[in-house]
Amino acid sequence: MIDSFRDAFRLPDLKRRFLFVLAALFVYRLGAHIPTPGIDPEAMAQLFEKGGVLGFFDLFAGGALRRFSIFALGVVPYINSSIVMQLLVVVVPTLEKMQKDGEEGRKKIVQYTRYGTVLFALIQAVGMTVWLGNLGIFAGGFLDAVVVTVTVTAGSLAVMWLGEIMSDHGIGNGISLLIFAGIVARIPEAIIQTFSLVRMGEMNVLVLLLAVLLMVGVIAGCVLLQEGQRKLPVQYAKRVVGNRVYGGQSTFIPLRVNTAGVIPIIFASSVLLFPYTLAGFFPGSVAKAIQNAFAPSSPIYMILYVGLIVFFAYFYTAVVFNPEEVANNMKKYGGFILGIRPGKPTSDYIEKVMSRITLGGSLALALVAVIPTFMSGLMNINTFYFGGTSVLIVVGVALDTVHQIEGQLLMRHYDGILKRRNKTGGLLNL
Q: CB–CB of 268/293 below 8 Å?
């Protein structure tokens, strides 16, 4: 990993992309510290000292919600809009046709996703403002509430824009990198607070060691999930073209155990955050019951969380992986799986295998996400949100970014070889 980053900084293009990502992250972290007008920051800090669901909310905002800054909503509205749009593409024939129309159709879907982000951001901004008003943290009038709502909504749209330009001009997925930066930025503060509690005797050293061991185990599990593959052996028949013989070699199709990566975790968490936000519109016992039901430590939340992770793992895998296309490409180049006929039988077999490993991968993903949250409640760790969700996101985004860097380095390495051959009168001149 370190070698990949060092080699990337030696190439001007990749170095420029890195610096662009760092500059965008700096802007994001700067916005996370700019307070929203009319909000009492000390009252917000006291509210978050209680921990619980608020720390889970703050996970996706990168600490911005704790301060209720202009980026308080973070990337949650954009994620919610993306989920709804991807579901509509499967259900609505017009959107499905639009997606298959090529680049122009995909641009329209992206534009609709942006419109949805505005709607979700506005709903959540109003909900947060009403919620703070019920708690007594925000005591302004109607115009002050409008200013807060517009400010937070505009901040969410700015975060969406930052994520998109990072994806276009940087390295990796911009939205995932923003979530990654928000989680990593809180680690030093959490470590200092934890050791302060240990030094004052408010936290047992053995509990801290157990938490560290659990974290190491979760990280190892995350790496295994992200890198695990099922290799399907493929044999290519020999073909004679002129005086040359092609094919005849054996290879394999790498089917990832966790094809969707951290997407199921992010999507499931975002979906379950939305009812809690809507409940903030309404005072009374019913709204309070809804908020208690969707707290991360509640059994209802745990069951829904696991179910949504499994659902989004299958859904995203179906979107990005097409067994029929893989089978057709194998048939086109004379490849086949031993014991399986080419064409539709091969497609059905690949789909069957993919379905099985996706089930195992999604359940393992849910287990890694839920167990640390349950254990942190037993160990009473409130200095930071200690859960598998944050670790999965950090590990998954880091591995995905490193793989993209290695892909860019490999591509430029081959480009360099081809250019040298061209200059020396090599194969390109034949």
A: no
Domain ranges of the chain: 16-185, 213-430
How many whole angstroms separate alpha carbon 176 and alpha carbon 24? 13
pLDDT tens sequence across 18-32: 888 889 989 998 888
Q: Do 308 and 363 touch, CB atoms closer than 8 A? A: no
CATH topology (fold) of 16-185: Preprotein translocase SecY subunit (1.10.3370)
Question: What distance in Å separates the CA atoms of residue 244 and residue 239, rounded to the nearest whole number?
Answer: 8
For the record, the structure tokens of 233 come out as: 């052996």
Which class for 392: exposed (0-12), middle (13-18), buried (19 or more C-beta within 10 A)?
Answer: buried
Mean pLDDT across 54-79:
77
Element (H, E) at 285: helix 285-293
pLDDT in tens, 355-408: 989 998 888 888 877 776 666 666 666 555 555 667 777 887 888 888 777 777
Is 251 within 8 Å of 236 (Cβ atoms)?
A: yes
250 phi and psi, to 5 degrees?
Answer: -105, 140
Distances (CA, A) of 270 to 58, 221, 389, 396: 12, 23, 12, 17
Give the contacts of 294 (CB within 8 A, at least 6 positions apart): 53, 272, 273, 275, 276, 279, 300, 301
* DSSP one-letter code for 69: B
Topology of domain 213-430 in CATH is Preprotein translocase SecY subunit (1.10.3370)
Q: In what order do the strands lie in the sheet with 250-256?
A: 250-256, 229-236, 335-336
Burial code (b: 16+ CB inside 10 Å, e: under 16) for 249-283 equals eeeebebbbbbbbbbbbbbbbbbbbbebbbbbeee
Domains 16-185 and 213-430 equal at CATH topology level: yes
CA–CA distance, 375 with 217 (Å, rounded to integer): 13
Distance CA 265, CA 308 (A): 8
Environment class of 384 (CB within 10 Å of its CB; exposed 0-12, middle 13-18, buried 19+): buried
Give exposure, 173-211, as e/b (b: 16+ Cβ within 10 Å). bbbbbbbbbbbbebeeeeeeebeeeeeeeebeeeebeeb
Give me the DSSP letters along 27-59: HHHHHTTSBPTT--HHHHHHHHTT-THHHHHHH
Q: Give, for 303, the enclosing helix (H) or strand (E).
A: helix 299-320
| Phi, psi (rounded to 5 degrees) for 231 | -95, 115
Characterize the bridge pairing of strands 239-241 and 335-336. Answer: unpaired
